[in-house]
Amino acid sequence: MSGILVSLEFEQIAVYKPGEVEYEKSVATAYLLYRFARPSYVVQPTHPAQVQDIVRYLIEYNDRQKPDSQVSITIKNGGHSYAGFSSTDKGILLDLSKINRVKLKLDKVSHPKSVMIRGGALWGHLYKQLINGRHKGYMLAGGDCSTVGVSGFVLGGGLSAFSRSLGMACDNLTEATIITADGRMVTVGENRDPDSDEGKLFWALRGGGAGNFGIVVQLKMNIHQLQKEDDSARTRETVIAGRYTWFPYPGEVEEAKPMATMNESYTTKWVDSLAIHSTWICDLQEARTLPAIRFIVYHNGEKNSIDKQLDKLVEQGNPSDQTSERRRELAKPLRRRTDYAVPS
After folding, report:
1. CA angle in degrees (0–180, nearest 5) for 179-183-185
2. Is 213 left (phi over 0), alpha (psi -120 to 50) or beta?
3. Residue 230 falls inside a structural domain
4. Which domain, by its residues, includes 334?
5. Of 72, 95, 118, which closes a domain?
6. Could you give the number of structural domains in the chain?
7. Looking at residue 89, which CATH number applies to its domain?
C-alpha cells in the first residue's frame, strides 16, 4: 500500500496513520459496537478533485494486486451510521469532513430556492448559514441533529421533522455530483432523461445511494418557504415545537392504557403540517414507572392551528367513554408544551 500513500502525498492529500491525532479523531465514534474499528489509514481530501484522485490511484493499485491483497475504501461523512457503514477495520477510511462548503441560493432571481452542499457538510453547517444570514422563513427537509452528515442522510432517504409537508430529503434532491467506481466525475440531476444511464443513476441515488454507486461529492437541494396562516403582510412564518414525556405509573395503567392510547395516536390522520415523533424510553432511576413515552412535536404553522388539531382529536368518539378521556388527558400537556413559537 506504500505506493498509494506516496501518490496521495504527492497530490498533497492528507494521510494519517494510527496514533496520529487526526486519525484518532476521525475513527472515533459514539456507537460502541464500532469503537474498536481501526482502518489502516485515514485520508482527508479537501476538494472533490482529490476524491477522484484517490479513487483512480486505488483502481490502478488494485488492478495490479491479487483479490486478497486489494485495498478497500470506506466513506465517512458524519459518522452516524447505525449499521457501521462509516467505520472499517481494514483498508482506507475516506473522511470527507474537509469538503464541507455550503452555498445558499436564496436571492430574488433564483427559483426554486436551493442550496449547493459539498459531500462532507453536516446539517450544522447548513443551518448555521440559514441562521447567521437571517434568511427568515426558509427551511428544508433536513435532519434534527446538527452533527449528522447531509450526504449520508439524503442518500439514505432522510426523514425530517418537516417531511410530512416538504417530503423526504431524497425527494428534495435535484442534482448530485458523484465519483463513480471507475474514477469518473459525473453530475446527474432531475433534468436528465430518466431512461438514460445518468437518469437511472439519479433515480437510484435518491434513497439507495449511500456509497452503493460511488462517492457523492456535491448535492443540490430545494429550499422551501414555511407556511403562513394567510398571505397578508402582517402574518409571518412560524414553527411551533415542544416536548412532553409521559410517565404512566403502575397504579394508573388500567386507566391510562398507554399501549391503547399510543396505538390510537399512531393511527390518527394528522394534518401534513404536523409531525409528532415518539420515543419509548426506560428511566432506570425511576423504578415506580413503566416505560415512558417522549413526544416531540413540530408544526409548520401557527399555534392556533395545532390547538385545533388537538381539539379535533379529543372530540372524536363519545365524550363519556374512556378513550376520549385518555385523549383529553394526553392533549392537555401536548397543548401546554407546544407553546414555543419560533418566528422565522
Report:
1. 40
2. alpha
3. no
4. 238-343
5. 95
6. 3
7. 3.30.43.10
In SS3 terms, 279-335 reads as EEECCCCCCCCCCEEEEEEEEECCHHHHHHHHHHHHHCCCCCCHHHHHHHHHHHHHH
Q: Are residues 21 and 72 in the same domain?
A: yes
Taking only the tens place, the pLDDT of each residue in 210-254 is 778 999 999 999 999 887 665 554 456 678 888 888 777 666 655
Cis peptide before 112 (omega within 30 of 0): yes
SS3 for 217? strand
Over range 104-132, report the average pLDDT: 91
Give SS3 for 211. coil
Same domain, 119 and 83: no
Same domain for 120 and 221, yes or no, is yes
Q: Over the stretch 281-338, which tens digit does the pLDDT of each residue have?
A: 876 676 666 678 888 888 888 777 777 777 776 666 555 555 555 556 566 666 655 5
Contact of 19 with 38, CB cutoff 8 Å: no
- Can you read off the three cell numbers belonging to residue 224? 422551501
Q: Are 162 and 141 in contact (CB under 8 A)?
A: yes
Question: Which is it for the CA torsion 146, 223, 269, 338, positive or negative?
Answer: positive
pLDDT at 343: 44
